[in-house]
Design a protein that fits this description.
The protein has about 120 residues and is an alpha+beta fold. The protein has four helices and three strands; from the N terminus they run ααααβββ. It has a three-stranded antiparallel sheet, with no helix packed on it. A hairpin with a 2-residue loop joins β2 and β3. α2 runs antiparallel to α3.
Length: about 120
């Protein structure tokens, strides 16, 4: 009940800083995003409402926890963590808008491109 209590922590004013638990868990951030918004594992375990579903986060809250949250906790929010002129441009581009797809579609979402240090490093277009 008290593990991964994201909603409780966020509502208390805590800054959530998400990342992978690699090599224990896959490094793929979409798996963590899916877990945060559904409270389910990729195989659907956790039930239709998710494991302690009241702890679910919105997509916007989850993306913040993967981007600005880590920057804030490292006192780097003026350099990174958001798409703002003058900040470091390390960006992952997905093949679909993750704010608009169903949570199940997150599992099929692919990386379409990456930008590291402001330079395109990988792209599928």
């Amino acid at each position: 009940k008290y593990s991964y209590a994201w909603r409780t922590m966020l509502d208390s004013g805590a800054v959530l800083a998400f990342g992978s638990d690699s090599p224990v868990e896959p490094i793929e951030p979409l798996y963590g995003i899916h877990a945060a918004v559904t409270r389910q594992r990729l195989d659907g375990s956790g039930g239709p409402d998710g494991w302690y579903g009241e702890q679910k986060l919105t997509m916007a809250e989850t993306i913040h926890a993967f981007t600005m949250g880590p920057a804030i906790t490292c006192s780097q929010e003026v350099r990174q963590g958001s798409l703002t002129p003058g900040k470091l441009a390390d960006i992952t581009i997905y093949d679909r808008n993750i704010f608009e797809v169903s949570h199940d579609e997150l599992k099929e979402t692919k990386i379409a491109g990456t930008i590291v240090g402001g330079k395109v490093r990988y792209r599928t277009w």
